[in-house]
Amino acid sequence: MELLNNQREKSSWPTLLALSLAGCLLFSLVSITLMESFLGLAFLFWLVALFRRETELALPGFFWPLLVYAVLSIIVCFFSVNPAVSFKDARELLLYLVVPITMSAVLSRRGRSWTTFALLASGLLSSLYSLGYFIFKSQPGERIQGFMGHYMTQAGLLLLFICAALSFLLFLRDRTRWLWGIAFIMAAASLALTLTRSAWIGLVVAGAFILFLYRPKALLLVPAVIALFLLASPQPMKRRALSIFSLHNYVNKQRIEYLKAGWKIIREFPLHGTGPDTVDMVFQNPKYGLSEVSRQNVHLHNNLIQIAAERGVPTLLAWISFIVWAFYSLLKRLRNKGSPVFPHAAAAAAALLALFTAGLFEYNFADSEIAVLFLYLISVPFALLKKAEQ
After folding, report:
1. What tens digit of pLDDT does each residue of 60-80 get?
2. In this structure, are residues 169 and 210 in contact, taking their beta carbons and an 8 Å threshold?
3. pLDDT tens across 290-314, in order?
4. Sequence ranges of the domains in the chain
5. Which end of the chain is more exposed for a tag (fewer CB within 10 A), N or C?
6. Residue 376 in contact with residue 25, Cβ under 8 Å?
7. How far is the C-alpha of 191 from the C-alpha of 196, rounded, in Å?
8. Residues 121 and 26: beta-carbon distance below 8 Å
9. Is-contact 341 385, C-beta < 8 A?
10. Rg (Cα) of the chain, in Å, rounded?
11. Whole-prediction pTM value?
12. 227-to-185, 224, 231, 234, 247 alpha-carbon distances in Å
């Protein structure tokens, strides 16, 4: 078996696969076009490697409910209020192939090293650019968006990256942990500059989870860090943070509007929803109770409500099954703190908690950049387990 693994590592196609996935991760926080281009190359090299039997089709257990979610998402397109729009949106389901691609690409030592350092470089580059922009070009109160087209996409990516950086800082046992520590500090500062409250809440939950894994007593740092943030942060950040608890904040009222409108849509289209990417067409009808300003948005700011409204309750149940299955599987990999899988499993479980928590206030699973990085992070621990079994 070891001889077979060595032969695979020397083969050109698995090497090209690993390099392409590394390129995808290198641009994951920098450019969606280049990220998807390298992912497309990785897909082609993965297919060739499969055909030549230089890699195997490996699927973690959580992929099956994710596959059911994808199949149901395609089926409901036939019942969409606008099938053309829904089928066009369904193309993004191909991004979920990053799961088996990752399972193959990181089996080799070089693949693991290349993809890990590519992600580190991407996070450092994005954070450095954001901090530089804030210092030299930003306007007072401007929400920093880094290389992304929107500050909320930037926040979602930084949130996932921070989960990996903090986990590797605390749990890795080599010198690279200090590079991850620097990346964690820079990314956390960059996330603060986005003024994105949903990502901040996700970070508190994920950070508390990682600290609990490290040392339960370290949870005492969470309220201390929050208090320090509120005391030392500039007024725009402080106002944004405190507005989370305000019942009079207009954006908070909007979130309630979206929840009510989403519930009405779900009751009207319970089985198949309105169709992928069509909810914003449907809630233009005044009967759903959205204000004129709220109707200008394109989604309902909540993963659960949005998925059920546009794809139906059965599809939502498949998505929830995927999340629960993945999280439970990762928790089982956290029983042995000395395992080399532990740092990656901790990062993956924290990223899942972060995405789910932030997704209660934002439809973040629809962002292709966020979905790719998230699926990569939660796939790596299972690839390492497969490597250990060979």
Report:
1. 999 999 999 999 999 999 999
2. no
3. 998 889 888 999 999 999 999 999 9
4. 2-248+295-389
5. N
6. yes
7. 8
8. yes
9. yes
10. 21
11. 0.95
12. 17, 5, 6, 13, 21
